[in-house]
TrEMBL record:
Key words of the record: Coiled coil, Immunity, Innate immunity, Metal-binding, Zinc, Zinc-finger
GO cellular component: cytoplasm
Domain B box-type: 136-177
Compositionally biased spans, kind Acidic residues: 298-310
PANTHER family for the chain: B-BOX DOMAIN CONTAINING, E3 UBIQUITIN-PROTEIN LIGASE RNF135
Protein's name in the database: Uncharacterized protein
InterPro entries: B30.2/SPRY, B30.2/SPRY_sf, Bbox_C, Butyrophylin_SPRY, ConA-like_dom_sf, E3_ubiq-ligase_TRIM/RNF, PRY, SPRY_dom
Pfam families membership: PRY, SPRY, zf-B_box, zf-C3HC4_4
Amino acid sequence: MASADLRDELLCSICLSIFTDPVTLRCGHNFCRVCMDEFLKTQNGAGVYSCPECRAVFQERPALQRNVTLHNVAERIQSTQPNQEEITGIRCTYCIHSPVPAVKPCLLCEASLCDNHLRVHSKAAEHVLTEPSANLEDRKCSVHKKILEYYCTEDAACICVSCSLAGEHRGHRVEMLDEAFVKKKEKLRNSLQKLITKREKTEERVRSLEERWRKDQEKASGEVERVTALFIDIRRRLDHLEKRVLREISRQEEQMSLSLSDVIQKLEVKKDELSRKMRHMEELCNMTDPWTVLQEPDTGDLCDPEEEGGEGAVGGHDGGDGDTRGPDGGEEAISGPDEGDEDTRGHDGGDEATGGHEIPDLGADLISQMLHAGGAGIYGQGPADILLDVNTADINLCISDDLKTATWTKISQNRPETSERFQEYPQVMSRRGFSSGRHYWDVEIRRSRRWAVGMCYSSIDRRGDQSDIGCNNKSWCLYGEWGYNNQYSVIHDSKQIQLRHQISSDRVRICLDYEAGQLSFYELCDPIRHLHTFTAAFTEPLHAVLWVYRGYIKISG
């Protein structure tokens, strides 16, 4: 309201528009410069000038003083007002001194009106006001040049009164333009409502598809995470198997190297001794004195099998004059080649090459066995045979005859209180403990409100809060609770981690890799889903452990 009042104060009384380049007379009234110049021109002949606002008389043409303050205020106001001329391109017909945008045209007057002229325009019914239009002729009948006041429903055309009485629309069903306008708007509103309904359904479908898209993306991300985790585990196991096999190959290679080195060293000694004997014989063969040669004892058989097999047959050299002595202190016989050597020519050369020593061969069969067993551990093997130990079962747990199922019951089982038995919580351990290797086992959880499965050391407490699995540093478990939030959590050393996965299956797989220090849990849904992996340095044999309340847990297989 305040801005409207201010705008009225900024209107020129001549053009009824906001001041354009305002000027001030001596009487204090303000006008547009163009408007005032045009007004004073009309008074030039009379020789007397007056103010158009207060009729104050001036003997001389008054000087027009520019009002800078009013000019700035007018510009500020104009900058905040919508420019109707820019919207419609239509100017007021009666504002001849300055262009003023029109807001309504009158069909009867065939004139466009600005806000100020609209206020003083006739309010009679025949003066029909419409929206601004560049061509007012469009609102008149092209035949009779009269205002289009009626609507022919049969031809869907706007007509004048002459068209309905004597023109081509004579006898047609005709309505007043305003009535047809109201009906048309009502029909458009109904169509609009239908479109709104259709759009809402379309939006709902888009939201539904977007939600499905989001779930599919989450599912795909979960699958990527699951497959990535599985292949990381496979690669880790393969790396571990590779290191074990390579260590075994290195061990065998080192053992073979040591054995071969020892044999080679012994054969080198024997070769040197034989070379010494050969040089002595060559000296004898090169002598020309028969007496000296004949003084040498008979050589005997230098290739005697007994000498071939052991080092005791090889004599020592005194390192002096070339004489050799036998074991009895006499001269040692120098033997020649044995003619019977031909009997051993058919041998494969293995013992002959090693001088009769046993050299271990590379255990290719053992390596293949390790690879086969390791591969089976990675790519699949049978489940571990888990049997429950009744001697550890809480008195409110009923253990089946096959030692595979633990069922919670209100009725005490009247078992003797021993140091092995859990006294505080409904849990039971397995008979068997695992101190090496890779193993897995599956469980089914039925009608159990709260449950936990995992592994623990046999040294876990049997009484007090520390006996609850997960609430100590000797046990690791997966915990589930139906009905409250249907979510998993994992617990170790009283630290509980809530998992983002909701329970969607009643079957769980527990996988142990003792050497790698990993205990993993998987949900056996379709497809299988990795839940969590504990990593620790295990120091004792691990036993399977079940914790069940109001329901039962069954070990599968």
